[in-house]
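Service request form, structural biology core

Requester: graduate student, group of Dr. S.
Request type: structure prediction, single chain
Budget code: on file
Notes: please return the result as structure tokens.

Sequence provided:
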Amino acid sequence: MADVRPFRGLRFAPSAAPDLGSVLAPPYDVIDAEDDARLRERHPYNVVRIELTTASVAGGPEGRYEDAARTLHSWREEGILVCDEAPAYYLHEATFSHAGGQATRREIVAAVGLEPWDRRVVLPHERTYPRAKADRLRLLAATETNLSPILVFFQRDRAEIDNQSDAVDAAWAWTRNRTPDASGTDADGVGHRLWVFSDPDLVGGLRAYFAERPLFIADGHHRYETALNYLEDRRQQAGGDLPPDYAARFVMMHLIADDDPGLVILPLHRLVSGLGTPEFWALVDRLGSDFEVSLLDGKTADDLDAALAQLRTAGERGQAVGLYPPEDSEFVLLTRPAGAALPAAVPSDHDGSWQSLDVVLVDHTIVQPLLTEHGLHAEDAVSYTRDAHDAIQQVRSGVADVAVLVNPTRVDQVAAVALAGERMPEKSTYFYPKAPTGLVFRPLE
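Core staff response, request fulfilled:
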């Protein structure tokens, strides 16, 4: 099903970045102004100078895309970035702190054939925003390079694993006792190790392995749709179809097994601006018909930790949402038992896998009604954070008016929704850590 190929990667020369982590950056959509400054100070070749940031999506300085392209070109001319001589897969390990311990996620970096959504080869699970796609298209057109990878996961066949015939396991076995080709620790404390994997027998096995299974997008829906749009632009410029091996027919991805212990999803809490205290409590009153409403103490840090623990526990028994109001006095816990009838606001013409999601419940009973009632636009009035305490602090400081706190979506829920052909609301998942920019680039030459 999926055409997963090795490619000639463009990478930092060891002499330019002995510590690979010093030049890495997260993808654009999680880099704010403070992060941008911190990364620029960390190393003169940090890729934030090319990747641009969330400020670019909102409308940055004129010429920013051309500046990024010039920087990329100069780094290639100066030998800071060097292209590998032969096509290869790249094996990447990310080691990070999680749940009080250490976790490691293993990814295969490859060029993957672009397919329209309706072909069901690459499966999405989230809706996207138009501004981000327009921004990324302009950057891709200027640099003619896949800068940030798309993070995807695939489902493993238990029988292949049990029979020791799994090509993915064989690839990772190859790394044993081999020194990584590059390594380092990034600004967020995530450790990275990268191997250039070009063993001819094992490379062929990997390509055949992925030809038999679909890929599920974990992170990077905007970048995938941007790559499709870029390919269509190229087709139109060529006045017809393009050769099968044309570079823009492929996009760079990080592929992860669905049973990888490092495949972690964090919640993405919603922050809504543009309403006051009376409007908030009017909303809570309306929600009483669909939820059991509990008011918990929310003054102190201990109070909030206890309330967040109740949110997690309630989510194990059914559906649960937390609301933090404009004044820091009470934490509102909304719960629904498993199997309860759908609220009237949740569309009934969708698959059950979609209807049962907490983020769908939040979107249709809380966020969308607030936006509609107050004439607000989602891209202006809604922001996101993976940290519940950060969400609450933003409300307390007046940056946002209401925090909508959710439990994380599970990997099996993501797969079920994608297989059903459904789309979750925007920003429904946060796969952690983000696949970094700068491990390897893929020029479209």
